[in-house]
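I am sending you the entry underneath: sequence plus fold tokens. Let me know what the token row says about the fold:
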Amino acid sequence: MSHHIVEVADLCYAYPDGTAALNGVNFCIHHGESVAIVGANGAGKSTLLLHLNGYLTPMQGRVRIGDYPLTKETLQDARRSVGMVFQDPDDQLFMPTVYDDVAFGPLNLGLPLDEVDLRVEAALSQVGALHLKDRPPYHLSGGEKRAVAIASVLSMSPDILVMDEPTTGLDPRGRRMLIEQLHSFQHTKIIATHDLDLVLDLCERTIVIREGRVTADGPTLDIFRDEAFLAESHLEKPLRLQACPICSRKG
């Protein structure tokens, strides 16, 4: 597979009511990178992510995964390479038990049962959720659901992990645990989020989207230190980069 793992070129998309969501998006993400996609509500972040494994089809432009463009013919191979974790885990968890949810993908690949069992145990162990394997997903906390949703993707052994607002609904401890888990993953990671402090923890590179266009693509710290640009993009500097208001008053 090419080291240019994900390439998006002149990507355009409009919804059936005519609302333009993406207007000529271009970027290339290399193997092993952790990249944040940030922007205000309605900027096009989620729409972009849904193109990366074929949930949406470009109206113009192309998406390339590895050496091949994403088409109907290559869709299944792309979905094996690109694992998508949705914003709401309830969109992903639908089986009677956690084990069944995590096993669903490998079973659909036609893998033998002993291989499926090994993958489920490994994926749940990786996110610290092996003890939940016999529980019904609807009895889990938000953080537990998030971990199981990630495990259901990891069991497919993807090369690329794509996540939409991964910290939504998590308490501070759950958020910290998620960050630690994501630090340990060797995958290429593409994370759309409003949580800019999470981006500081995980992503050396940030792509900013505004009104369906890429307005910045570069080192995270460089972008987050530009307060005027962040304001134009309806974003705020991460809390860790802001001056302490109490210390400022004392000064």
